[in-house]
Amino acid sequence: MMNKYIEQEAIHYCNEVPFMRVLILCASYRQVKQYIDDFIRLVSESELECQINLSNSEVRFPNGSHISLGFCSKDLDVHKYAGCEYGFIHVDDAIESDFIGNYIVSRVRMRSDKIPEEYVDILPKFSYGSR
């Protein structure tokens, strides 16, 4: 089961901040699938009007926000995220590579004009922890 706090936080930001991009990064594709199952369960139990794209491992919201679930099982996998920027990134602690962690932290950025006033002191955000 996914860390409920991270799951709820990601959904909260995507509901509240238009065009918010969230990345939850796992150590393996298998973990991504577990996270997707958790999001499917959470969305089905709520009144959220979001769509889950299984082939892209994404949860999309009507306001243009989305949660991407990805994985880095080796250092070279970080290049999938080159040129991307996210308002919130959570890295699962199963990823033990310092190179991956340092590279992903550089993807946490957001144009200040896209951040609602009440979130200016919070976003962009990076977190690290376990499921």
In N-to-C order, the SSE pattern is HEHEEEEHE
CATH architecture annotation name: 3-Layer(aba) Sandwich
Q: What's the helical proportion of residues?
A: 25-40%
Which ranges are low-confidence, i.e. pLDDT below 50, for 5 or more consecutive residues? none
CATH superfamily: P-loop containing nucleotide triphosphate hydrolases
* Adjacency order of strands in the biggest sheet: 2-3-4-1-5-6
CATH class call = Alpha Beta
Task: Please report the total strand number as a whole number.
Answer: 6
Question: Which fold name fills CATH's third level, the topology?
Answer: Rossmann fold
Put simply, the count of helices is: 3
The biggest beta sheet, please? 6 strands, mixed
The structural class is alpha/beta
**Share of residues in strands:** 15-25%
Number of discrete domains = 1
The end-to-end span amounts to 7 Å
Radius of gyration: 14 Å
Brief summary of the model shown:
By secondary structure, the protein is of the alpha/beta class. The protein has helices spanning 4-16, 29-45, 98-105; strands at residues 21-26, 51-53, 58-60, 66-71, 88-92, 125-129.
Question: What are the SSEs and their pairings?
Answer:
Layout (H helix, E strand, L loop, with lengths): L3 H13 L4 E6 L2 H17 L5 E3 L4 E3 L5 E6 L16 E5 L5 H8 L19 E5 L2
Parallel strand pairs: 1-4, 1-5, 5-6
Antiparallel strand pairs: 2-3, 3-4
